[in-house]
Design a protein that fits this description.
Order of helices and strands of chain B: HHHHHHHHHHHH
Number of domains of chain B: 1
Number of helices of chain A: 11
Shape of chain A: globular
Largest sheet of chain B: none
Strand order of the largest sheet of chain A: 1-2
CATH topology of the largest domain in chain A: MetI-like fold
Strand content of chain A: under 5%
CATH superfamily of the largest domain in chain A: MetI-like
Oligomer: heterodimer
Shape of chain B: globular
Radius of gyration of chain B: 28 Å
Largest interface: A-B, 101 and 100 residues
Distance between the termini of chain A: 35 Å
Number of domains of chain A: 2
Distance between the termini of chain B: 65 Å
CATH class of chain B: Mainly Alpha
CATH architecture of the largest domain in chain A: Orthogonal Bundle
Number of helices of chain B: 12
CATH architecture of chain B: Orthogonal Bundle
CATH class of the largest domain in chain A: Mainly Alpha
Structural class of chain A: mainly alpha
Helix content of chain B: 55-70%
Order of helices and strands of chain A: HEEHHHHHHHHHH
Largest sheet of chain A: 2 strands, antiparallel
CATH superfamily of chain B: MetI-like
CATH topology of chain B: MetI-like fold
Structural class of chain B: mainly alpha
Helix content of chain A: 55-70%
């Protein structure tokens, strides 16, 4: 800490940068107060994340202890029953499948859009085009949900029928007995639209950092624009795109209201259906749609346990994304040799 | 030894064609260009479709003055009339309370990362946690506040609880954009201030933060735009009220997202559908306005480096 006057300057981590002045011992009350406030806010961030985990865990444990079925592998959800029985297998499946559909659709398109913005659109149009795509992020999720179920799902129905007829022999694509618009497939595509701006924004950032030497080298060797992108831009941005995709996945896993509105809830007694052309419930949609049922501690505990699983899953996905970014340079905050070189060549190009 | 130049290319009188490319490569290039352009067009379809839907279905109620001045009190799904005043007020109140808590925390957190902890291990830990907090789903934030506020503290579901949940969502946005801006403040400014004997805290408050002010306001606007459209915390932490309630500590509260949610099962009724789409349009307008303000402020307040 550079504010800690007792530490020798050489011991401060950033003394090597030579940019900071060591002001000597901190005497001012104002300084101590302000430093304390700033540090407190920093600690508050860590505290918030920790508290989310701790409180959810603390309230989930009693409910889990009473759970008479396997929490991880059961598809039953009857926390109100006596004794309570609930498991997350079905929720987990629906959450995962809808998010994977979203990823499969969003990632290639987002990469295309990012390339379009960075290397294809005329320079003057690049920034308005980027803002236009960002507008997708400004649409609230409840509006995506309404639009998705009322306008988009009916249009999608023939596509679903076609796919189900062609690939119906695979259980994943089996046509369900009942006709339904609120399918996992529809929810997945709407999720794809919702996570598109996030993935695009990060990919765009990484692609634009491709060193000029790499790009011009490829062009000088006679490659076409596409070959330049395939050989210089895409390899350079790969890890950035991977982490962007992970961040998008994190969003999709936790998306609540749009999914809740679109997915049709299966009846209690219906047999479980694994097809993407059937409805279902994700962690988030289950919790949100059951808000009215939070009346007894054991029931609330069951939903909090589901929320805890969602928290842990998104935590893992998001931290993986950040670690990939940090490890691999471009787009990362930590300065690795590649990132530094990229920054330098960008400076040279400017 | 006499046949040394055997490997040397022999000029056979034909001009070397350096401009042409083989057909397959040119074709691939064209194909890639077309595909990439197509990706952009595909991304535009839902945007235009959604905006058009909401605009065309929702605009006419917005033209009536009562929409902006009256609540839905006593108005059933079948009846026309009333307005969105209660929901707009509710949304604004909850967002403002959230901002009052989240903005100082976010700005001070960024000050810590840049001015106090730069490069240290604990700063990296905080920075990592900010990233994690950015990714926490809104439903998890809501559930956390529910666990603390309702289950442990035995409080009622009120607007203030929603604000608390929104703090978790807004703070990382404010923190990140403030941090980006503080990074751009030239060290010369700080050093000039230190050289004049100004203590560090005063330097930060009077030199660094004012220089970065535009960026901070941009972050606040973007944060507000994010939280005002959130529905999940509203569903769990406060009930919907059709009447005007400006007290965040007592009773249910209307909000634009829950106003949409309220009537979404009655879309077959014309009046209810009108209200849903008009509330949706109002919400989009508010969010877009905040985004636009953020962008304008960002444009006019960029820090000029030498």
């Amino acid at each position: 800490m550079s504010t800690d006057g007792t530490a020798a300057p050489s011991a401060t981590p950033d003394s090597t940068s030579g940019k900071k002045l060591d002001l000597g011992p901190v005497g001012h009350l104002g300084d101590r107060l302000f430093a304390g406030l700033a540090k407190g806010s920093g600690a508050a961030v860590v505290g918030m994340v920790a508290f989310v985990g701790i409180f959810l865990l603390a309230l989930a444990i009693p409910a889990l202890a009473n759970d008479k079925s396997s929490f991880l592998f059961s598809r039953v959800w009857q926390p109100g029953a006596e004794p309570p029985r609930f498991g997350i297998a079905a929720l987990f499946y629906t959450t995962l499948v809808s998010s994977v559909i979203a990823m499969l659709i969003a990632v290639p398109i987002a990469v295309g859009v990012a390339l379009f913005i960075t290397y294809y659109a005329p320079k003057r149009l690049a920034s308005p085009v980027a803002h236009t795509v960002d507008l997708l992020a400004a649409v609230p999720s409840i509006i995506y949900g309404l639009w998705g179920i009322i306008f988009f799902a009916p249009v999608l129905l023939p596509v679903s029928h076609f796919l189900a007829d062609a690939l119906g022999w695979i259980p994943l694509f089996k046509r369900p007995g009942t006709e339904d618009r609120g399918t996992l497939f529809a929810a997945g595509i709407v999720l794809a639209i919702m996570i598109l701006p996030v993935i695009t924004a990060i990919s765009r950032e990484v692609f634009s950092q491709t060193p000029v030497e790499h790009r011009e080298g490829a062009l000088a060797l006679g490659s076409t624009k596409w070959e330049m992108i395939r050989m210089a831009v895409l390899p350079y941005g790969r890890s950035g795109v991977v982490s962007a995709a992970m961040l998008g996945l994190g969003r999709a896993l936790g998306e609540t209201v749009a999914v809740m509105i679109i997915l049709s809830t299966p009846n209690e007694n219906d047999p479980w259906n694994s097809s993407i052309f059937a409805g279902g419930e994700t962690f988030a949609s289950k919790i949100a749609s059951s808000a009215a049922e939070f009346d007894s501690p054991s029931k609330t505990g069951a939903f909090i346990a589901a929320g805890l699983v969602l928290f842990v899953v998104t935590f893992i996905v998001n931290s993986t994304a950040r670690i990939i970014v940090a490890r691999s340079g471009p787009g990362g905050r930590t300065k690795r040799p590649t990132a530094r070189r990229a920054a330098k060549s960008e400076g040279a190009a400017a | 030894m006499t046949a040394v130049p055997a490997t040397r290319p022999v000029y056979d009188g034909q001009a070397l064609d350096l401009t042409g490319r083989s057909g397959a490569r040119a074709l691939k290039n064209t194909l890639a260009t077309a595909l990439i352009g197509l990706c952009f067009l595909i991304a535009l379809i839902p945007l235009i479709w959604i905006l058009w839907t909401v605009l065309s279905k929702g605009y006419h109620l917005l033209l009536e003055p009562s929409w902006w001045t009256e609540s839905q009190r006593g108005i059933t799904a079948r009846r026309a009339g009333g307005g969105a005043y209660h929901a707009i007020m509710g949304s604004l109140i909850m967002a403002l309370i959230c901002a009052v808590i989240a903005v100082p925390l976010g700005v001070l957190g960024a000050v810590y990362l840049i001015e106090y902890g730069r490069g240290s291990k604990s700063a990296r830990a905080v920075s990592f946690m900010v990233d994690i907090l950015t990714g926490v789903p809104s439903i998890v934030a809501a559930l956390f506040i529910y666990a603390v506020w309702v289950t442990i503290l035995h409080q009622n579901r009120v607007g203030f609880a929603v604000s608390l949940a929104l703090v978790l969502l807004m703070m990382p946005v404010v923190l990140r954009s403030t941090e980006e801006m503080l990074k751009l403040v030239p060290d010369e400014l700080r050093e000039a201030s230190y050289a004049l004997g100004v203590p560090k805290w005063k330097t930060i408050l009077r030199i660094v933060i004012p220089t970065a002010f535009g960026g901070i306001v941009t972050g606040v606007m973007l944060g507000l735009a994010r939280v005002i459209g959130e529905t999940a915390p509203l569903l769990i932490l406060v009930g919907y009220s059709k009447a005007i309630n400006t007290n965040p500590f007592n009773g249910f509260m209307g909000a634009l997202p829950t106003m949409i949610n309220q009537d979404r099962d009655n879309l077959a009724l014309e009046n209810a559908a009108d209200r849903v789409w008009s509330a949706a349009l109002t919400l989009i307008l508010v969010v877009l306005l905040l985004n636009l303000l953020a962008r304008l402020i960002a444009r006019f307040s960029t820090i000029k480096s030498k």
